[in-house]
Design goal:
By secondary structure, the protein is of the alpha+beta class. The protein contains four helices and eleven strands, in the order αββββββααββββαβ. It is about 15% helix and about 35% strand.
Length: about 220
């Protein structure tokens, strides 16, 4: 399904830039998007470029998708009932899955999976854009379908609108594709809230979502 309301850095693959800069900026913008271009998510498993997954658990998820020869972007957006959040316009969560071609230097300079993971860690831990002030962060290793991945958790204050005083909770997960070293896989889960609202626990959602992911040899003939 094509989508119309999704931000995409023009002509630049996600992994060709510092991951944190692009993803924090992208998802800070996504938090206020409406559902234009999104469709209600179905319970069916989806697959492209050797990544197969189920939608997030629960109701009220919407999905948008974009496919290319070496790129797959899948965005799930969750809406919360009125009254759950201080401002319904700010409520909800976003999950973005990106499978993208890694730049040549990743599979030339970084010869092993371990060194690629180290490079992902460095980029995920890099400072975000100036308008996002990091309040807390941590990085761990997790396992997805038997493969190690870097997981970086960060809470940031959005300084672009000081009067609103909003925070962005985010988890970024990155790993080289287990079946194709020329591809990288990135999962981001974010939730925006006001500073006086309790944080949304992302870890339980992350655990359920990533543990149902599986990897197969990529097939590039399903472009739409």
């Amino acid at each position: 399904m094509p989508f119309q309301g999704f931000y995409k850095p023009e002509g630049i693959a996600l992994f060709r830039h510092t991951l944190t800069l692009i993803l924090l900026g992208t998802l800070a913008g996504c938090a206020n998007q409406n559902l234009a271009g999104y469709m209600p998510a179905t319970p069916d498993r989806v697959e492209y470029l050797g990544v197969t997954l189920l939608p997030p658990p629960g109701n009220d998820w919407y999905v948008a998708e974009q496919r290319d020869l070496n790129e797959w972007r899948l965005v799930y957006k969750h809406t919360l009932p009125a009254g759950v959040h201080s401002d319904p316009a700010e409520s909800g969560m976003n999950i973005m899955v990106v499978v993208d071609a890694l730049p040549a230097e990743y599979h030339q300079q970084f010869a092993t999976r371990g060194t690629v993971l180290d490079e992902f860690r460095k980029r995920l831990e890099a400072p975000g854009p100036d308008y996002l002030k990091t309040l807390s962060s941590k990085t761990t290793l997790i396992t997805i379908d038997g493969n190690e991945a870097v997981c970086h958790t960060r809470t940031s204050e959005d300084l672009s609108n000081p009067a609103a005083h909003t925070l962005l909770d985010a988890e970024f997960i990155a790993l080289p594709h287990p079946k194709d070293p020329t591809l990288g896989v990135m999962i981001t889960i974010t939730s925006r809230r006001f500073a006086n609202d309790p944080p949304t626990p992302l870890a339980p959602l992350t655990d359920v979502f990533v543990q149902q992911m599986h990897f197969t040899p990529p097939v590039r003939d399903a472009i739409r």
